[in-house]
Write a structure and sequence with these properties.
The protein has one domain: Arc Repressor Mutant, subunit A (Orthogonal Bundle). The protein is 65% helix and 0% strand. It has 8 helices and no strands. Helix 3 packs across helix 4 (66-77). Mean pLDDT is 83; it is low at 21-32.
């Protein structure tokens, strides 16, 4: 986006994609086992994790059935769309928390409220987003 350093943005994107972990195959350089539709959706979500589109809307955009897209997510990532989307949102949030307040991050990654974001983040990482950001700040100091 305008006003953002391209190098820093690419580094942040790499950290986000790495945060998907082993359960979700690497996006770059892996051998696809599905039709590619799930990868298309995951790439789009990595650019805009706050996208509200559900599986049915993505299937319509890609002109495939919901069932085909569901199967493709299972083949590519070993998990359903909702779980991939949540992992992308939460890994993106960790990067954004380096420079943004919790409420803004919650909104930018697609949560309806800061409390819903805090709950999901805590469940995934074992600490609140605020505590995570504080740890990051202390480690950099």
């Amino acid at each position: 986006r305008p006003g953002h350093d391209e190098g820093a943005a690419l580094a942040a994107r790499a950290r986000i994609m790495a945060g998907l972990g082993a359960g979700a195959a690497d996006f770059v350089g892996h051998h696809a086992t599905g039709t590619g539709f799930a990868l298309t959706v995951a790439r789009a979500l990595s650019h805009d994790p706050g996208d509200e589109a559900g599986l049915a809307e993505w299937a319509e955009r890609l002109h495939v059935s919901v069932k085909t897209l569901q199967r493709d997510f299972e083949r590519e990532f070993g998990m359903p769309y909702s779980k991939v989307r949540t992992k992308l949102r939460l890994s993106t949030s960790r990067v954004l928390l380096e420079t943004r307040p919790v409420a803004e991050v919650a909104h930018r990654v697609g949560y309806s409220s800061p409390s819903a974001f805090i709950s999901a983040f805590t469940k995934e990482y074992g600490c609140t987003p605020g505590r995570y950001a504080d740890r990051r700040s202390a480690a950099e100091a």
